[in-house]
């Protein structure tokens, strides 16, 4: 099993370099003003250029309009658009057509009933990200450090690649992978020493824990053959 590891909400060259040096598969940049991880376009341009193909660049947006998306795409040159709002399947198709980029749709999860909407996106999304459903009073849809019940995904069978997010950190990522059998993990607040402030050592610890979980899953798979 190959596990895709994504570090999201990066905002400094130091923490980006740590994620790249530890061989993160994806590096995420947030474009949503209410978020403490929101990036200005000039900063995104500099950080994006520093990636130099060492990881896939992901632009996270929330119900962004075409003009906003166009500015982000021009500045970051992302490899993937992560749509974290209430975007419909039709909106995903429209974005893919206009920007010629793959899209990952984030879906909030609290109970198994939340998976009902999944069918709407299967024919248009390139990836699915299952994230913890935010509380009603939240001002942003993710990066809140909340964990959902991973058992909701325990028997899910998707043709699309999917990732899990929400409250992950070095201490629980292995359990999340074991229960969900997700093909990817996405972390933001779980590698921060304060809200919006990434910690280099926590990034290293998370990626190493995720790789250890990947190796363990591979042993289990081969052991069962």
How would you describe the overall organization of this protein?
The chain is α/β, with parallel strands linked by helices. The protein has one domain: Aldolase class I (TIM Barrel). It contains seven helices and ten strands. α1 runs parallel beside α7, α2 packs across α3 and α6 packs parallel to α7. It is globular and about 45 Å long.
What secondary-structure arrangement, pairings included, does this model have?
Blueprint: E1 4-7, H1 13-21, E2 26-31, H2 41-51, E3 56-61, H3 66-76, E4 80-83, H4 89-99, E5 103-109, H5 118-121, E6 127-132, E7 162-164, H6 173-180, E8 184-187, E9 192-194, E10 197-198, H7 200-223
Parallel strand pairs: 1-2, 1-8, 2-3, 3-4, 4-5, 5-6, 6-7, 7-8
Antiparallel strand pairs: 9-10
Helix pairs in contact: 1-7, 2-3, 6-7
Q: Poorly predicted ranges (pLDDT <50, ≥5 residues)?
A: none
Terminal CA distance: 14 Å
Strand order in space, largest sheet: 1-2-3-4-5-6-7-8
Number of H/I helices: 7
Kindly name the structural category: alpha/beta
Bin the strand percentage: 15-25%
| Sequence of secondary-structure elements | EHEHEHEHEHEEHEEEH
Biggest β-sheet strands, sense, barrel: 8 strands, parallel, barrel
Give the % helix.
25-40%
Average the pLDDT over all residues and give the rounded result. 92
C-alpha Rg, in Å? 16 Å
CATH architecture verdict: Alpha-Beta Barrel
Keywords:
globular, alpha/beta, 225 residues, 10 strands, TIM Barrel, single chain
